[in-house]
Give the backbone structure.
Amino acid sequence: MKLPANPNTFANYPLDRSGHRRKDAAWLEAALNRDDAAIHLFHRDRPLLSQAGRRMAPSPMGPGAVQMASPDAPIVFLGVDEVGAPHFAAMLHPDLDPTEPPLESLGVFTDLRSAAMQLSGPDAAVLGCAKAILDWHERHRFCAKCGAGSQPQEGGWKRVCASCAAEHFPRVDPVAIMLPVRDGRCMLGRQARFPAGMYSALAGFIEPGESIEEGCAREVLEEVGLIATAVRYVGAQPWPFPSQLMIGLIAEVEPGDVVLEDEIDAVVWLTKEEARAALSGGVDTDRGRIFAPPPFAIAHHIVQAWLAEP
Amino acid sequence: MKLPANPNTFANYPLDRSGHRRKDAAWLEAALNRDDAAIHLFHRDRPLLSQAGRRMAPSPMGPGAVQMASPDAPIVFLGVDEVGAPHFAAMLHPDLDPTEPPLESLGVFTDLRSAAMQLSGPDAAVLGCAKAILDWHERHRFCAKCGAGSQPQEGGWKRVCASCAAEHFPRVDPVAIMLPVRDGRCMLGRQARFPAGMYSALAGFIEPGESIEEGCAREVLEEVGLIATAVRYVGAQPWPFPSQLMIGLIAEVEPGDVVLEDEIDAVVWLTKEEARAALSGGVDTDRGRIFAPPPFAIAHHIVQAWLAEP
C-alpha cells in the first residue's frame, strides 16, 4: 500500500491479504504449520495482548496454538506480513478459562475497544479485522436461506451451506457519520450513553436504496430535524464493533429549529475556535463544559477535516 | 431532500421513508388499508410495470392487492409520497402465474435491470429499494445465529428470530468501483461476461478491516497489478442486484506493467478525448472498437467526473 496514512484507528491494515491464497487449501495448511506462523488468539471477543512498556501489543502464538481453538470457529487467514510470515486468527475453545493454565501465562485477553488506544495503528488494524471476522462466524453458523448449518471455507472468508449450497460472505455495514455545519459553526450531538460532557458527530446505518449522501441527509433530518443541502466526503474507517464501515461526512444544513428525536439528547453549535478547544480538552458552552471524542473515533477526524477547510 | 441531484440510477429516492412509523403497527395497518395506498407488486424479482408511451412506469395496485401476497414475505413499507399516500411493496404468492388471470391483465412483470433505463429516476429508485428489501427477506428466512425461522417486523425493515430473539437487519454490501488514472489517461477493463466491446471501471467488495481507500487499492492491485497512490471519492449509487452500495472512486496509480488476474481479460488506456468518445458511442483502440457503459452504470459517471477534473 502506498496510500497516504489514514488518521483513523483500525485503518492502515499492514498485512498483504493475499486473497488468491484463500482458495488454496494446501497452501493454507502449509502456512499454518510454518514455524513463523503467527496465530492471534481470541477468547470470546477479546484478543490476547501483552504489555510492551507503556503500550500494548498482540501476543501471537506459534502453530501449536491451534490445538486450543474452538471446533465451531475457523482459523482465519489474515494475510502475510512484510517478512513473509503468515498471520491467522483463532477463537479459543469456549471451555478454556483465561485465568487458568494453559491460558493464564500467555498474556491478557483484553477488550479491543479499551485497548485500541494503547496499540500501534498496524496492530489495531490486524486485531480489528480478526475480531470482525471471528465475530461474524460466531453469529452466522447457520444458513439464513434454509436454516441448515453452514461451514467455513477459504480461510474463513466464506461460509457455505451444507444443505442448499448457498454461499455467505462476511458482512460489512456501511454507516454515514456526519458533522452538520452552517455559517462557520458545526453541530455536535449528545447521546445518553456517552461519557458525561462528551458530544460527537451524528450517525446512522445506510439503508437499501440510499446513496451515501441520502443516508446522511435522512439521518440529519431524523435526529435533529435539519435539512442537508450538500454533503462532502471526508474519509472512512473500518470499525470492528461488530463490523461497520464508518463513512465520515460534512453536511451543510439549512437554517431551522433543531428538533430532537429519541437518539440525541442535546446539541451544541461550535465556532472553529470552540471546536478546536473541544478536541483538545474541552470548551465551555451553554450546555456546560463539553468535549469532542478522542482520535480513536472518526468523529474526531471529521471535526479536524472541517477545521482544516478554508 | 434538498441535495443536489445524484446522476446515478436508483438514487434520489422520492419517498419520505418515515422510519419512525415502522415500529407503529397500528399506523402501518391503517396506512395499508387506505384507499390511496400504493402497493408495488413483485413476481419473484420482477416488479409490475405498465407501458407509458415510450417509457415504463410502476403500476401500483390498491390495498386489495395484498390478498395475493406470498405468506412467506412481508408487506414492506416504502414510505410516503409527496401527496401523503403510503407506498408498500408486496411479493406475490409463488403459485400465481403472471401470464394468467388475475395477474395477466394488470401489466407486465419486467426484469428491473433491463427496464431501469425506461423508468423515471424516482420510479427506478422506489422499485430498486423495494426489490432489495424483498430479495433480502427471500434469502434470510432463517436466523443465521441459531437456524430457527425468523419473522419480519417493523414494516419489513427487520427480522427477529422466534427462538433466540436475535435481530437481523437488511444487508447493504459496500463495493469500491474505481477508475485507475495516470498521466492524463484512464484505464478501463473488460470482463468476459460484458457485452462485446464494452470496457468498464474495476470493482470489488470492501472487506472487514478495510477503509474505502484500502479496498480500492487492494482491488486495483489484485485485478491489474498496479499500485494506487491516492484515491478520490466521486459519488455513490444504491444498486439493487441484490443490494450493494456502489462507491465510485478515481485512483491515481504508479507506472508499472499491467498484470491481469482472473477477473479482467483486457484493459485499455484512454486519453480524455478517447474516453469522451467511449462514453458517447465508441472509440477505436489497440483492442478494436470499444465503448464505456451507459449512464445506467456508475462507471459512466465516474468517467464523467474524471473528464470534468481540471
